[in-house]
Structure formats: C-alpha cells, structure tokens
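Final report, Chapter 2: Outcomes

The project's central promise was a pipeline that accepts a single protein chain and returns its three-dimensional structure in a standardized token representation, suitable for archiving and comparison. That pipeline is now operational. To close this chapter, we reproduce one record exactly as it appears in the project archive, with the input sequence first and the structure output second.
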Amino acid sequence: MQIELFDMKNNRKTYILLILSIAWALLIFYFCTMSSDKIPRLRIPHMDKVAHAGFFFIQSVFLSLLFNFQTKKNYFQIILLSTLVAFLYGGLIEVLQSKFFNRTGDLYDLIADVLGGFVGAMTYPTVLRIYRKIFKTDT
C-alpha cells in the first residue's frame, strides 16, 4: 500500500501551508529560546503567556488548514491533532529551555501554548470559510 504525502490537486496550498508552518515553528523556537536578557520587558501582567498563546494560535491555524487540505480527517480529529502538536511542540520547547538554553521551563507557558493551539484549531473552520469565500472554491 502506497501512501502519498501530498495530494496533487492541492499541491500549491500544501506547499504554502507547509512552508508557513515550518517557518512559524522556527520563529516560535527562536523567540522561546532566546536569552532572557534580550526579551523586551513590558509592564503588562502575564504578557509572556499571551505571547505564547498567540504564537501557538497561529501555528495551529496553519497546521489545521494543512491537515484539512491533506487528510480525510473530520473537524474534531483535526482540532485534536493540532492541539496535540501544540502540546508536544510546546512541551519540547519548555524542556529544551531548561536543559540547554539557560531558561526555565514553565508549566504555565505550556498551558498557554496548548490553549493557544486549541483556540487556533477551533478557529480554523472560520478561517476555512473565509478562504473559500475569498477564492470562491470548495476545497
């Protein structure tokens, strides 16, 4: 049994979303592992948690759209999968921060990552409807 990685019909969308997802993941990694003294200090309470949630919100929207165009999964499965990726990637970053980047891994950062990922995944059907209206397509 042969499994195709990319659906040829959605090839362009797939590559764009794959590139966006990878680039965004690298951006998340960069900001989450940069030295603490280089991070701007804002006097807004819990702004770092908002940033974590925002990063993973966007990542989850990209991934959910990618999964939508490339799999036969239903909305619930895509939301679950995207949230799981947010949990795993956020958890990995928190472990790497404490082990290799002289930063502290924070459970509350991971919670913000997962919540941002979940909300992003929940938002993806709306983003998909907007996409379909703009480009007048059924995919």
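Archive annotation: Confidence is low (pLDDT under 50) at residues 1-8.
This record, like all others produced under the grant, will remain available to the consortium after the project formally closes.
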